[in-house]
Amino acid sequence: MPAPTANKRRRGIYLLPNLFTTGCLFGGFYAITAAMKGDFDLAAIAIFAAMIMDGLDGRVARLTHTQTAFGAEYDSLSDMVSFGVAPALVMYLWSLSGLAKLGWFAAFVYAAAAALRLARFNTQIGVEDKRYFQGLPSPSAAAIVTGFIWVGETYGLQGEAMRYVATLITAAAGLLMVSNFRYYSFKEIDIRRRVPFVVIIAIVLALALVSTNPQLMLFAIFSGYAVSGPLWTLIELRRRRGRRGRSQTPS
Predict the structure, then answer these.
(1) CATH code of the domain covering residue 116
(2) Greater confidence, 72 or 87?
(3) Which has the closest alpha carbon to 159: 84, 240, 92, 221?
(4) Residue 251 lies in a domain
(5) In this structure, are residues 87 and 34 in contact, taking their beta carbons and an 8 Å threshold?
(6) How far is CA 204 from the centre of its chain?
(7) What is the pLDDT of residues 172-192, one digit of tens each?
């Protein structure tokens, strides 16, 4: 019987980053079950908690040098549940079910767009500019959809009364995910570097501002981020046209 080689790799997965990914998956699953019981505010909070877990798993994997192909695939699958299926179902149960076919069609458009967005992202790893995302990231789209639900639940807005606005927001978030608009990724920010003291003050003030009215502030922040993509694209198009005009002007 041959002796095992010393350099034979052990089979297994890294525990720490995958624990955060599992937490992200659990948030999406809990959101669906909470919405089925009519606890829509808890469903929205669960998806926002899933966003935090999703943001931590990649950071932890990079900081601890535990990035693996398994972790990347697991992260994509959990994202599809938490930021694709869960927001669509929660929105459908809260508001869109009153529109019959139009409602489930809007919910399906969002879920399908999230799947396409994640598939496109996976195929562009190592190719696209890391400073930008192509299309609205699925966690941000989920924050807009569920943030609207959270605002509605907080201020006593009935989902049935808001069904047409909910349809527009759901469909728009889905279409932005599969658009070619570029969104800043914030991946250039290195938390291990030294930063000016004013940056810490700005972060503290931002957290304090969000804590005063988390429902409305989070919805406004992510809605602003969604609008930034089309605005950035328009600015870039104007710059390119200006450069072409100057290059074609005879000297």
Answers:
(1) 1.20.120.1760
(2) 87
(3) 92
(4) no
(5) no
(6) 23
(7) 999 999 999 989 887 666 666
Strand partners, 133: 183
Tokens representing residue 180 in the block:
């070619």
For residue 86, what are the contacts with CB-CB under 8 A and spacing of at least 6?
Answer: 28, 29, 31, 32, 43, 47, 50, 142
Pull the structure tokens for residue 72: 């990347």
- The total number of structural domains in the chain stands at 1
Residue 143's domain spans which residues?
A: 15-245
pLDDT tens string 74-112: 999 999 999 999 999 999 999 999 898 999 999 999 999
Helix (H) or strand (E) segment spanning residue 133: strand 132-134
Is residue 72 included in any domain, yes or no?
yes
Q: Give the pLDDT score at 129.
A: 66
Decide if 111 contacts 85 (C-beta within 8 A): yes
Cα separations in angstroms, 122 against 70, 117, 207, 225, 227: 13, 9, 32, 22, 24
Whether residue 90 lies inside any domain: the answer is yes
Query: Is the pLDDT confidence value at 6 over 70?
Result: no
